[in-house]
Design brief:
One of its GO terms (molecular function) is acyltransferase activity, transferring groups other than amino-acyl groups. The protein is α+β, with helices and mostly antiparallel strands. Helix content is 30%, strand content 24%. It is globular.
């Protein structure tokens, strides 16, 4: 298995993520555009070109004079590859990127009852900020709470 940061040359791997994890048809133009934006960060674990796990993040600018931040949107591992340390390795790669780029901080959101995810994040020295307890959504597409 190969762990790597995806770039413009990894369209097949991104398409594997879209097919295998989202179960959606691939829009090749959208894939190319996504990979060409350096603010989109994807670390993936692949067997050949079949991605079995990935961490997706977005580097976000700040309005003040502080350095950018990294929002981790997905930490996903195929069921048969869970509990093998892959998610921790990929997440640590993203955290190392953030340190190397001198980002101000990294954050992610998870469900309170997702104990395996919370244990993973804590094992990577993440912590649950005491003031961030509520999360609100505004959906503007046909997808809603059941499809994100």
């Amino acid at each position: 298995m190969e762990l790597k940061k995806l770039n413009q040359k990894n369209e097949l791997e991104l398409n594997s993520i879209i097919s295998n994890f989202f179960h959606q048809p691939v829009d090749c133009q959208k894939s190319v555009k996504f990979l060409s934006d350096k603010r989109n960060i994807i670390y993936a674990c692949a067997e050949d070109e079949n991605v079995v796990a990935y961490v997706l993040g977005y580097q976000l600018p700040r309005i003040d004079n502080g350095n950018d931040m990294l929002y981790i949107h997905h930490v996903c591992v195929s069921a048969e590859y869970r509990r093998k340390g892959i998610a921790k390795k990929l997440l640590n790669m993203a955290l190392e990127y953030a340190q190397k780029e001198n980002l101000h901080y990294v954050y992610l959101i998870t469900q309170t009852d997702n104990l395996p995810a919370r244990r993973l994040y804590e094992s990577c020295n993440g912590y649950n900020h005491p003031k961030n307890k509520e999360l609100y959504y505004w959906y503007f597409s046909a997808k809603g709470l059941n499809n994100d």
